[in-house]
Amino acid sequence: MNLLISNNLKTIETVKNKEPCDVALSLESALIKAKHKKYDVIINDGFDDSGIFDNAISVKDYLKNITIDDKKIKVFRQEIISVWSVKGGVGKTTTVKRLMEMFDKNIKILVIDFNFQDGGSDLSFLLDLPVIPHIGVYLKERTKESFFKNLIEYSPNISIIQAPPKLSFIKDIKPEDVENIIRFARTAFDVIIFDLPNKIDEIINTVLENSTRKIIVSSGLVSEARRIKELDEDFLVVINSPNRQWKLYYKDFNCITIKELEKILER
Question: Residues 7-19, buried b or exposed e (16+ Cβ, 10 A)?
């Protein structure tokens, strides 16, 4: 759910015609609402909210449309997409690559690789990234300057902060480091995509808590369906399997196939 800050009836009507949202008629009212409810996006109609909301955009940006392959898709602002799985070997990192390359070239994307393991991550090998820089180098200083210095420019609109080649480089990472990384990223990127390992800990939980969209990639096995059912989260399940029998086990989930991945871009 989004929050619109506006006292213009025409603006309120226009935004609500796009999708449902809460409305605050003043900045003070918006602050009160935001204390009691977490909003995906704060839509600002001319109020001075500098330094107040990290996820604020202007009405103009929100209503702007772009065309991709003859389809109108809304510009993404401050989307945080986490891509996760309940087991390895389901094509999660390949899905991250396909997803990040689906966005329009005008949208700035940051991919954050949290698949920490000795020997380097699948994403680093898949994209043929250099060994340095990586997130471990950033953690030595933990500054905004260090964060941007250790990004890898994969393409003109896609940057990556990769996992280090050794676990020892991130042994002291904390949930507040995750929150700072997201805060820094929001100042320069429209979409932030986390490639997450198939486990749950306080670091992964922090990512999920800050995500506007949560995706589980699954091979469609009944064992995965049972594990997903136990999760207390609102996930979109992306099925990466040619076997249609998965529909029997996943009928209670919000699912799409890997071929329908572009639906994630729609709202």
Answer: eeeebbeebeeee
